[in-house]
Amino acid sequence: MLTIDKLDEIFQDFPVPALILAANKDFKILQANQAYIGTLAMPPEELYGRPLFEVFPDQHPEDPESPIKKTIQCIQKAIQLKTPQTPGTIPYRIPDENGGYNLRFWMLDYIPVEDDRGNVAYIFQLTHEIVEHQLTDKLQSATTGIPYERMFDTAQNAFFLSGRNGEVLAVNRKACTMFGYSEEELKRLRRQDLLVPDPNIEPLLAQREREGRTSGEAVAITKNGEQFPCEFSSVRFITITGEQQYCTEITDTRKWKNAEEKVRQSEENLRAIFDNTVEGFVLVDNTLKIIAFNDKAGEVILQYVGKKEVTVGSSLLEYLAPERQVAFQGIAARVIKGERIEYERPYPLPHGKIRWFIFAVNPVYENDSVIGLCISGRDITMQKLAEEEVLRREKLFRRMVENSADAILIMTAEGKVTYVSPAGEQITGYTAGETMQMNAFDTIHPDDRAKSTETMSQVFANPGLPINAAPLRLQHKNGSWRWIEATLTNFLHDPEINGIIENFRDVTKRIESEQKILLAKHEAEQSEEKYRKIFNLSPLPIWIYSLDNLRILEVNDAAIKHYGYSREEFLSMTIMDIRPPEDAAPLKELLNNIQKDRQTPPNHWRHIKKNGEVIIVEITGHSIDFYGPNARIIICRDVTETIRTGAELLRSNERFRQAARAASDAIWDWETATDTVFLGEGFSTLFGYEEAGKTVSRNWVTDKIHPDDRLKVSTRIQEVIKGTRRARWQDEYRFQKADGSYAMVCNSVVIVHDENNKPLRAIGAMKDITHQKEEEQHLRQLESVITNTTDAVLIITVGQHAPHVIYANPAFYKNNGYTTEEVKTHGFALFHGPNTDIAELAKLEKAIKNHESCQIQAVFYKKNGEPYWASLAISPVVDDKGNVKNYIAIERDITERMNYLTAIEEQNKQLREIAWVQSHMVRAPLASILGLTDLLINEIKEPTSSEALDMLKKSANDLDNVIREIVQKTASANK
């Protein structure tokens, strides 16, 4: 909710006179704007803190229907209903500068203002002063109900406006001259002060209350005591705000000599009033024929007249617009029955504007019968506009007040809280009930209590004056500390408040921001010193120059050292002085762009040292606030050598490309910035790709890696790029050739980084090691054979001394039982023994000496002394130049074979002996048998004997053939 102090600026400038009242029973004045103060003759200090009706007292306290009492009821109704209310026009006695009083008539509006909890906290009083019309537009005739204005300036008789109890509210000038009093003196009098008491007057007054009007005769008393006869006519009327008042006309009958003069004078008075009012009047009979009308009638009521002259006796309907005629006939029918009707009606004007009128149609009575109608009309456009403005202002103030974030608190001198507005809960976290159970001083931070005590001393010493307290910390319900800014006013002397009013707001964010600013300022000062040290200690040349005149404003030690100029020389130069003349134009163009773009990317320029040397520098510039907004700080890096190295690198790259064409390896160059790879000529000769010598995407290369190897290769090269592996990397994997087959490759990669260790490129060479891998596989197979064979395999080296064994496979050690160290230390001498054939050993030594292959068979000895036969074959191993470096020796245990051969030999010997026996000992008798058989065959001639001898001879021949065959086979086996 907005507090009074926040509304002050807008409230003071509000054009309508206004007050802010407290919503308590006395309606104390809290604030008045300039427009209101300007209407009074009293200073604002006499208003503030006083009850409204102490400043404007009730002039008729005994009258229960007095305007002030009705005003109080109106305000109370506004608080109860929470809606704007108006008591209408109220007369006020306002002190003037001369010590007297002026009667002022104000039309008042009372607007309730609610707080966040829906309770009415304030009342806005908007005051519209009736200046032009004064009282006259509020009077009504009992007979016609016609309001009169400016009657006091034109009437020939005395007119009194009085209240319910006879108090004089207003008079005209004629009344003052008739009775000899001033206007203010008459307003302080009552009826009994002006008329001689007469019992006949009371019935007449009763008639006025009953019938609304009365008239009669009386005796008037002047100021000097003179009495004179008079006639009076008095009407009772209800104001537009609902108040009951009386208008009394007094006629001095001393002027009239006869009844005709009296009638004429009365008619003149009425005509003066009738013709000079600002309202339009038309009197018609029951048939709506015009009886009378005044000058304003044509403008306000008879608007459809045009150029037609209004005449008495014509029908009123002739002068009304066609669309109004039927409606008015309905209204007239109701009024003829005794009903009073009042209504408002808008009329459109050119240019879209609206003109508002208020009409009243009242019955005209004669002997209690309605004999006609009185139609009055008045232009209320300005009033409508004022009402709209009041409503607009009301919405404005309501919106401002309801959205206030400030809180109001009332506490006793001891700190006991008696009231807190809803905003207090938002600030402190405590509900209103919780707050009123607390002491306001208990929640103050211990470090701020002394400051609070000092503030309260000022509050107690200055009753009624607002005291601004320095910000202090209050503890929120959640335990946090909130910075509070408050204004305290001591109203302990006021019995209605009996407390100290505190308007407070949460300024935590503001205080914290201020503290951050102070801290930032302190840090900035320290930072400035730190950056000044960095500026001076930077190894790179730095200077600051002005964009306005390009003069160098500051320079560091590195610039002085690198360029050779002294500090004084630098500060007397501009940035043009260190550049070749031909660079002036492009530099000016760059400076024009700098003024539009506050930062520039790194760029290269030529600078001239004091010794005349021209260097190439990379410049980075930034805007800086250095004793003015248009300054730039420049950081220079001498890249002369880098540029030269770059030129060499270009030439080196060309040489690299030429070498790549001639290399047998597939050389590639991956540039990380573009993610492209240059392929050397080896990609054509090794893998058959037509893309050799061209640049391809990185994906082209990675897609050629065998799917089973791709993840491993990608992961490893990323680790190298990120620095988690060494900068050089080598790996073996399968790479697809153009024909779809895969080659086993060895890829060696080197990563090139910039000065910030950011990878720039990767250069690699791929070798086709498919054949090598196949040979390695073959060797591994051979090694497996050697390792797993039962033959002993040895590698023998020959130096200046005797041959010695440098390798022996497991079978060798298994066969002879010696250890590796024993064999390597003692060599072949370990294996010789008594039955070792010296001739065979000599043949072996000769072959080694002549670098020839050789195979011997001899008896060797195991570690346990057991002899064994072995076949030992050696072959020389030559290097690339044909020199014999080692010998391969294969030893096979032939003991079993040799034993078998010995057994065969022994068997053959036995067979030879058998064959000899067969050939010499068996065949000798067999030969004799064959000879004897031949003799017998020749001698014996009998058939039977001859047949027996033939059979004997055949058997002997068969036995001879068997023996021969045995002998032949034995001879063949011995060959």
What does this structure look like?
- Keywords: Kinase, Phosphoprotein, Transferase.
- Its EC number is 2.7.13.3.
- This is histidine kinase.
- It catalyses: ATP + protein L-histidine = ADP + protein N-phospho-L-histidine.
- By secondary structure, this protein is α+β, with helices and mostly antiparallel strands.
- It has 8 domains: 4-131, 2-Layer Sandwich (Beta-Lactamase), CATH 3.30.450.20; 136-278, PAS domain (Beta-Lactamase); 279-388, Beta-Lactamase; 405-506, Beta-Lactamase (2-Layer Sandwich), CATH 3.30.450.20; 538-638, PAS domain (Beta-Lactamase); 659-774, 2-Layer Sandwich (Beta-Lactamase), CATH 3.30.450.20; 789-893, Beta-Lactamase (2-Layer Sandwich), CATH 3.30.450.20; 900-974, Helix Hairpins.
- The chain is built from 30 helices and 36 strands.
- Strands 28-27-26-31-30-29 form a 6-stranded antiparallel sheet, with helices on both faces. The chain has a 5-stranded antiparallel sheet with strand order 2-1-5-4-3, with helices on both faces.
- The chain starts with a helix and ends with a helix.
- Residues 1-7 and 132-153 have low confidence and may be disordered.
